[in-house]
Amino acid sequence: MERKSILNYVIGPIMRGPSSSHTAASYFIGKLVGNFVNYQIENVKIIFNEGSSWAHVYRMQNSEYGFIAGLINYDWFLDNFYQLKEKILHQNISVNFMDQPCSEADHPNYVKIELNSSSHPPIIVHAKSTGGGTILLTKFNEWNVEINGENYYLLIEYQKEQEKPLFQSLNKFFLSEDYLLSQNHKEWNFIQITAKTPIPKELLNYLNKTNPMNLKFHRINPIVNVIKGEPLFRNSQELLALVKKNPITLGNIGLQYEAQLLGCSIEKIFKDTEKRLKVMLRSVETGLNKNKSNMRILKHSASHIYNKFQEKALYVNNINTKCALYALAAMDVTSSGGMICAAPTGGSAGVLPAILYILAKEFELNTKQLCLCLLAAGVIGLINSYRSTFAAEIAGCQVEIGMAGAMGCAAVIEAANSTPENALNAAAISLQNTMGSVCDLIAGLCEIPCHTRNATVASNAFVCADLILGGYINPIPLDETLDASLESGMLLPKELRCTALGGIANTKTAKKLFKKLDK
Asked: How much is the pTM?
């Protein structure tokens, strides 16, 4: 059964904007694929399926930079990240992006990468971005693989006569719980070993000494936390059963879940959560600085609204307005390609930072309390990840910004020191009111209407939390709401699922804005 981590892909990854599906996933796929050639690349073709979501938006969502950085193992948080194209030209590296019909494509975010070099045989890898920064390599040359970056991997191609000595050696090092995937093709056999611990050096030494004509191998390291344990729960009902035995808040449940899953201490989970919290709060503060704004279509507005708020020049001028403008600030950083934390995606990375900033500044929550609020939010996203998706390419905006709003409600309920049941219900009613929302981003950019959606959904989290705290009784449980959200999203046509072909993206003005950018 699946095992999902809050810190890996619900509250995270820490990334560059604007998109977890198209920017972060590009980087992670590139990083895994680069492993095959020790990041020594010469000629690369990156092929998207014609007409797919990725084919439509990769230029606008910094996918090119993500892939290149990953393939050459470059630190994508360095200031000169956007000079990468010039950097590879100077190194005589050729990376070409193209879209063409791909019969193998089974996902809107499918990609095929072809690596050619004088120092190694041609390599072809098939992969897909599955939402929120999650990725999966599905094929390596003619072999089927299952590589998501959450484990240590060893891929071995060998001829039949090598099988007995090879398996004798492998049996010395690997445990019964280590996952083995085996195949054969003509005169060659193949195995993929998926392990929770590093591949032993003694085994690598043995493989290096083996006749290279009869055996080829690749070692691939994890790119996120390695999952070592079993989940405490996978749905709301299992969670509520736990709480019945041990009445604690949702944030503390998230803390226990993650510590057990990753096989580490509570202190380590707090430390990693605090790291994400700091990135989120910083994104709000950075986004209030007009001079750091570098958006493609929208003009900076967060600091102007903030100044009007301080002057009491706005009509309502309350905490909801303040939360909304903080969300705009965080999204300014996202769209400017700055450092953010996906929550659960890059396109929704304004919601939780805004809510947490309000809880910190207006309600004076300390760092530990804020971390618990963040973990409570993560639990809602976690349950969604088991039942649904974070990919607007699959189910529209409701599973990205809509889900961020549901997660935000849980953060507010945690701040109020209320029950997990209230958190689940607040999340459910929030999602019930974003259900059916389309992903119609203009020009393939996470700007219009994404920024104002982040703002209104963040503000709405306080309303939904208060409705539940005040006594509203939600009749439809969260699990059923999540299922309905996925179902309604999958009924949307592809034009309304992150292709920039329908909705507000299809208006006259939107098309003019796109033409301006194209020039």
From this structure: 0.94
